Amino acid sequence: MEVVVVVAVVVVVVVVVVVVVVEVVVEVVVVVVVVVVVVVVVVVVVVVVVLLVVLVVVVVVVEEVVVVVVVVVVVVVVVVVVVVVVVAVVSSSSSSSSSSSSSSSSSSSSSSSSSSSSSSSIVIV
Fold first, then answer.
1. Can you tell me the distance from the alpha carbon of 120 to that of 69, in angstroms, rounded to the nearest whole number?
2. What is the pLDDT along the chain (125 residues), one digit of tens a residue?
3. Are 48 and 77 within 8 A, CB to CB?
4. Which of 29, 120, 122, 123 is the most exposed place for a label (fewest CB within 10 A)?
């Protein structure tokens, strides 16, 4: 009977440690994703500012409408691509964090049910 109690305690401790590790990993992943998104946004802002400066210089120096249209199209394409990438990264990270947290909660509930079943078996014996 003592062996059953020891096994139940070990199982509960292992599951609690796994749940804590999963939660820490999820928090680290969320922080990394936020940092990456901030860096990408800063890079996009810098690129857009540089392209706008180039556009102004081209308009002043060349005064060609075709070049202005090409530069504007390039700026719009870059902004759209970066926005799509950022949205994809944020959505994938949020879905992975929610799935990992749900799996950790289900494992904790299963550990509590296993510990309760082991304690009930001890009472029956």
1. 76
2. 677 888 888 888 998 898 889 888 888 888 888 888 788 778 877 887 887 777 777 777 766 666 667 777 777 787 777 777 777 777 776 666 555 555 555 555 554 454 444 444 444 44
3. no
4. 123
* In the block, residue with structure tokens 């970066």: 82
- Give me the long-range contacts of 2-11 (CB less than 8 A, separation at least 24): 4/118, 4/121, 4/122, 5/118, 5/122, 7/118, 8/114, 8/115, 8/118, 8/119, 9/115, 11/111, 11/114, 11/115, 11/118
Q: What are the extents of the domains in the chain?
A: 2-124
- Angle in degrees, CA 76, 77, 80, rounded to 5: 85
Coil/strand/helix, residue 4: helix
Which of these, 104, 97, 99, 95, lies nearest to 18 by C-alpha position? 104
Q: Could you give the CA distance from residue 125 to residue 118 in angstroms, rounded to a whole number?
A: 11
